[in-house]
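Entry for zinc ion complex. Fields follow.
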Amino acid sequence: MPPLTTDALVLRTFPLGEMSVVVVLLTRSRGKLRAVAKGARGPGDRYQSSLQPLSEVRTALYGREGTELFRLGTVELLRSSEPPNSNLESLLALEYCAELFEAFLPPDARDDDAYRLGRSCVTALKQRGSNGTAVMRYAEAWTLKLHGLYPSLARCLNCRQSVTGGLAFDRSAGRVVCTNCGSKRAEILDSDSRALLRSALRLSPANFAERTEGIDLAPIARFHRELIETHLGRSLNSSRVIESVLRS
Ligand SMILES: [Zn+2]
């Protein structure tokens, strides 16, 4: 049977036995799938650096229709995700964005919007002096938006009025409302951060990073974390790593 040849973004790899790894890919033609890369850990690793998070590859995959696990054939590196000077913040951001995309993508669903989002985040992170923190916030917002999980920043779901202040989490209804409808104590996004997101999320990730330069994005990080953890029922592994590394 001829292999399935497709472009893909690498999301994650994990070891399988002594010599192999399993690669989780966001493929252009079939969405998220898994493949075994035999010999990827042995001496003379044939895949070398092509399997870094969010690298874009053209790959041949072997396996029957509907298989849970393909076998990885050739891998041609189309675009490395490696940031200039191996910038630590950008490397952590790549790892984080890849984990975020993987956590939200359903298996086997083609998703060109997610693919384009991944590519544009890499473009932003490869720029010299890139702002990894801003790119992570952008990736979170758009991942939640693409999956229909991002609240409206403009109109309150409860009173249907334009939001002028901040947003609050209404726990009893499990949704985000304006601070007039929710209690001020339950505020999860302040007025300034909401206005910033409303104007800047239309930009590309690189321009978003530029626009938010010098602005404290911690309130937006908390807002997104609340939404992500409410949906997944857990936190992302790399968010804990980033907190401990960037704080020390
Ligand atoms: Zn309201």
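NOTE: The chain has two domains: 1-80, 83-248.
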